[in-house]
UniProtKB/TrEMBL annotation:
InterPro entries: AMPK_gamma/SDS23_families (IPR050511), CBS_dom (IPR000644), CBS_dom_sf (IPR046342). Residues 64-130, 265-326, 348-409 form the CBS domain. This is SNF1-related protein kinase regulatory subunit gamma-1. The keyword NAD does not apply. It holds the Pfam family CBS. It comes from the Eukaryota. Keywords: CBS domain, Repeat. Transmembrane segments: none annotated. SUPFAM superfamilies: CBS-domain pair.
Length: 425
């Protein structure tokens, strides 16, 4: 039932799904805590009930049904970037070209590759090896296939050294043109192909997206062995936004962030970059700390002025005018240039909207509505003076909705493609 006079979303598939949770909620044992109730509700609903993925996940509606955008394992990095950019998607499953025609889905796919992962991997190759290593005593210490190694020396004092020529050299290099997608298996932001079957539960899906830090999960039809859906963290947050007004949602959504223990990360642990540092320093920090975004703060202070995410690295390769116009590509210049580029091309993205912030006394419902309306993956918590007080991600939100029962997954991970040894997902 609806509470406080509110009614859930306007008959959307997500709202109908919320009503299904509501029906289960109403008949749960009264002695159960709200969290235990939600766990039981989500365990009772199969992932096959989740609404179809939007086209920006790589699944397209065609006259013959639904088609998945895949990248073949022998595709070059340059071609992979073109495919992702052309279809306006950030990631895609990698199809193993050496797999037999009758291969199961486990053997058919070798992982999921992200746009940002490709670019950050390339930039990582351009860093000079240690002088003590064998590679450091070779010509590779100075350059990789003609790409300058200046990235490895970037620091707060060297922003002026980062010129557009660096990116021109990068996009024209043999490294970019000849390296295959399969060659970067296990690198930064590379995810193993871990899929759900349509009979798996919502609870399993939510735990994989939160506790196990997956950005998206393919859902496989075990009968046909094909990907039937792709569920993302963003899609789950959108579903939650559509459930406002339902009793189960309100019992959780009306709590303040501070009541739920958010933000988890304290201000002193927030990784940030100063506005006068090179933008590549931001991407280096994201790779080193294995995070998807980083706040830009005023020089010498803690007041937030912007946000750069891994997905924004695409502008360094697909929008030449950005680096042509800025010889010194600081974080501040990058934000200014990208916003100007987006306005010129009439594109609306989170980076164009500026910094999205909230406070500890905001409710979870307010936070979810903000994240959903702005289509962003993280929000920065600030104090009354605009100083950083923490960061909250979609994963944090989902983790406050459900918990993993002891021994829940059992042998679930057996039989799936193992995470490569050198993975830094």
């Amino acid at each position: 039932m609806a509470v406080n006079g509110e009614s859930p979303g306007s008959g959307s598939p997500e709202a109908k799904l919320g009503m299904r949770v509501e029906d289960l909620w109403d008949v749960m044992e009264p002695q159960l805590s709200p969290t235990e109730k939600l766990n039981a509700c989500f365990e009772s609903i199969p992932v096959s009930a989740f609404p179809p993925a939007p086209s920006d996940t790589g699944i397209r509606e065609t006259c013959g049904g639904r088609k998945l955008i895949e990248i073949k394992s022998d595709t070059s990095l340059a071609e992979a970037v073109q495919i992702l950019a052309q279809h306006r998607i950030l990631s895609a499953p990698v199809l193993d070209v050496d797999a037999p025609e009758n291969a199961s889905w486990i053997d058919r796919y070798i992982g999921i590759v992200e746009f940002a992962g490709i670019v950050v991997w390339i930039l990582h190759q351009c860093e000079p090896p240690s002088p003590r290593s064998p590679a450091g005593r070779t010509a590779l210490a100075a350059a990789v296939n003609g790409v300058t190694s200046e990235l490895g020396f970037l620091g707060p004092e060297s922003a002026a050294a980062t010129s557009g020529n660096f990116f021109e050299d990068l996009t024209s290099s043999d490294l970019y043109k000849n390296t295959k997608v399969r060659d970067i298996s296990g690198s930064f932001r590379w995810a193993p192909f871990l899929a759900l079957q349509t009979s798996n539960s919502f609870l399993t899906m939510l735990l994989l997206l939160s506790k196990y830090k997956l950005k998206s999960i393919p859902v496989v039809d075990s009968g046909e062995g094909k990907i039937d859906n792709i569920i993302t963290q963003s899609a789950v947050v959108h579903m939650l936004a559509e459930c406002a007004g339902l009793q189960w949602f309100e019992s959780w959504g009306n709590k303040k962030l501070s009541e739920l223990g958010l933000p988890v990360m304290t201000p002193d642990r927030v990784i940030k970059v100063f506005e006068d540092e090179p933008v590549l320093q931001a991407f280096k920090l994201m790779r080193k700390k294995r995070i998807g975004g980083i706040p830009v703060v005023e020089s010498g202070g803690s007041r937030a002025v912007g946000n750069i995410s891994l997905r924004d690295v695409q502008f360094l390769l697909t929008a030449p005018e950005i680096y042509h116009d800025y010889r010194s590509i600081t974080a501040k210049n990058f934000l200014t240039a990208v916003r100007s580029y987006l306005e010129k091309h009439h594109k609306v993205t989170p980076i164009r909207s500026g910094m999205i912030m909230c406070k500890r006394d905001n409710t979870m419902k307010e936070l979810i509505n903000l994240l959903d309306s702005e289509k962003i993956h993280r929000i920065y918590v600030v104090d009354d003076y605009g100083n950083l007080d923490g960061v909250i991600t979609l994963r944090d939100i989902i983790s406050k909705l459900v918990h993993e029962p002891h021994g829940y997954f059992g042998d679930f991970f057996d039989g799936v493609l193992p995470l490569p040894q050198n993975s830094r997902v």
